[in-house]
Amino acid sequence: MKPAKVVPDLVRGFKIGGTQTQSWVERDIILYALGVGMSRDPMDTKELSFTYENAENFKVLPTFGATIGSIGAVFEGLVSCPGMPNFNPMMLLHGEQKLEFFKPFPQRQRVTMTSEIADIADKIKGALVTFSSDVKDESGSIICRNTSKMFIRGIGGFGDKGKLQDSLPNVPQRPPCKVASDVTTPNQAILYRLSGDTNPLHIDPNMAAMGGFDRPILHGLCSFGIAGKAVLKEFCDYDVTKFKSIAVRFTRHVFPGETLLTEMWKEGNKVIFAQKTQEREGKMTTQGYVELNEDPQPKI
């Protein structure tokens, strides 16, 4: 029988489903790149290197790593965890995401993943659950580490503030170094979901209504990919080896069709970014940073 409230000691450290496997090929890489808005201009040869398998320098967007694993596995872990109460899956929202890179993603790969619930914290109106997953190639070498934080509305009040105290850098109080504008398409979420996150909140109007939204919302990880793409273009000239890590906090939902403005500030070997929607009075939807593999540079 499920407990009436979260039991933190039974949740923290819970192993999810043993070792999982996943593989990808060029088609998956291209579908993901299109899902975050690559190659809107088909004559842009730099972006074509992410969407054309026969390009001279065909490569994988770093944020593709967020598609390794699935929201289904996360949900399965929450349901099977003995310390978690029953909850409405439409009350599950993506709170934060961090990706750490140890080597560039190959064009084709079969990987194994081991995942656990690393932490849980009471946020009064809900619970913030932290998942950690190591992704390894066939030789056993780690490719990337995924850390996801999911906010579950309605199950707070259990009194445990959590063990992990990660923090993101504050958004600088000065004009940004660069600003990227991405107009999402009305069917952006329908395309992005084909990369693995098939939560009906992003496609089914009835399910979106159950979650408190008047229409389906864009995946947080799609906004995450759009932000990563902006930093990759503006500060790395599309060199994927420059990414050491990327982290983001989702602060407000985005509707497909809205315009995302990604503001970026270079500070040392980090690019701090903040996204906002142009249509809804510029309210911030995400904030985060990319850590770069380069010598620290002065503030710009």
From TrEMBL:
Residues 25-154 form the Peroxisomal multifunctional enzyme type 2-like N-terminal domain. InterPro entries: HotDog_dom_sf, MaoC-like_dom, MFE-2_N. SUPFAM superfamilies: Thioesterase/thiol ester dehydrase-isomerase. One of its GO terms (cellular component) is peroxisome. Residues 170-285 form the MaoC-like domain. GO terms for biological process: fatty acid beta-oxidation. Gene3D superfamilies: Hotdog Thioesterase (3.10.129.10). One of its GO terms (molecular function) is (3S)-3-hydroxyacyl-CoA dehydrogenase (NAD+) activity. This is MaoC-like domain-containing protein.
